[in-house]
Each structure stands twice: as structure tokens, then as C-alpha cells.
Amino acid sequence: MQSGGLTRHMRTHTGEKPFSCQTCGNCFMHSSDLTVHMRTHTGEKPFSCKTCGKCFTQSGELTVHMRTHTGEKPFSCKTCGKCFSVSGHLTVHMRTHTGEKPYSCKTCGKCFTQSGKLTVHMRTHTGEKPFSCKTCGKCFRMSGHLTGHMRTHTGEKPFSCKTCGKCFMQSCDLTVHMRTHTGEKPYSCKTCGKCFRTSGHLTRHMRTHTDPSQRQT
Question: So which residues are the signal peptide here (predicted)?
């Protein structure tokens, strides 16, 4: 190993970060890391996709992006064979096989496979709802919930049934609707065995066992 390479390697042991950002003070072990960091301040994105023109701050980001065009998925699961375009996605997927949930809630102890899921879960404790509707002001814990809500204003129904053409605002509504075609009833009563298409229908049915006034005469 050359002296320069050894010097850089030693920083992994000493923790030395001699390259500092004059804008925010953040420090880095390598000058190349500082160069990349500076782009967060300058907005420079020197790596562009020749297919769609999208630009990136790092060459690695462009490499990953190109797979959305080529369909390349070089990271495969040795257990089930499923393939992924990003190594991080494979790492998360492997937890479905191992059962590993490395991110735990310090409030209630619930564990998660992804840090993002823990972040969303924490909002159930803090009450934080960072995503707000610019039309009516209603707030949501998840960006996806806001996206679904916005359709109540726009009327957009992007999920369509391939059997009858009926359209829905949310994918879960389409899933339930499809059961009218397939006859699937995945929710069963543990008391009498009767099956239902939706969990809500099962909940109402269960009251016929616990509340005599709910029973049909």
C-alpha cells in the first residue's frame, strides 16, 4: 500500500476528518467526500442520464438510476431468487426470510425491518402529521395518505378493474372490489366459520355473536 493510501486507511482507525466544509462545518475523512458534499450547497449535479436527462450529484446515483431504463437487477436473493436493482433493497428483502427487525421503538418496543417504517410508527406516539393538504389543511402522518386524500379533491381514480373497468381512488379499494369477481372471502369468523370479503363486514358479523340485539330474527 502506498503512503497516501495508508494515510487514508489509518483515518478509519483514528476517526480523523481533516477536510471541513467552509459553509456548514461538516468534516470528512477524504477530500472526495467533501467534493460530493459541497454539491448539496451549490446544487451542482454533474452526472446526467443520457436517456431522460435527469441529473445526479454522484456517479453511483446515476448508475442506479440507469437500471430504471435497462431493467437490470444485479442483486439476487439466494433464498428465493428475487432480484433487485439496489443492494439496499436486497438487504431489506432478506429480513423477510430471516425475520430480523433491527429498528425498535424506544417507547413501546415494537420492531421494524426498515428505519423508515420506524420513523412513521413514532408519529403514532408523537402525534406528528408532517404532510398537509394545501387545499383543505388536513394533515397526515404519511405522504401516501396525503396522496390518497388529494384525490378526494381532484376526483382522480387511477386504479381500474381489468374485468369491468370500474375505477377507484385507492389500490386497497380495487383489491376489495376484485373479490366481487373472484368470490374470494379471506376474513372468516372463528365462531361459526362464515367468511367475508372485508374485515369490516367480519367485525359487524361478530357482533351477532356478542350482542343479541344485532341478530337477525
Answer: none
Pairing of the two strands 55-56 and 75-76 = unpaired
pLDDT at 176 (0 to 100): 95
The letter for the amino acid at 68 is: T
Q: Which three cell numbers stand for residue 64?
A: 442506479
pLDDT of 2: 61
Residues of the chain with pLDDT under 50: 217
Taking the C-alpha atoms of residue 159 and residue 167, their distance in angstroms, rounded to an integer, is 5
Q: What is the DSSP letter of 137?
A: -
Q: Look at residue 213 in the predicted model and tell me its pLDDT.
A: 67
What is the structure's pLDDT at 214?
60
Asked if residues 75 and 83 have their Cβ atoms less than 8 Å apart, the reply is yes
Residue 216 confidence (pLDDT): 56
**Which homologous superfamily is 103-154 in?**
Classic Zinc Finger (3.30.160.60)
Cα–Cα nearest to 103, from 88, 90, 118, 91: 118
Interstrand relation of 103-104 and 195-196 (parallel, antiparallel or unpaired): unpaired
CA atoms of 130 and 136, how far apart (whole Å): 15
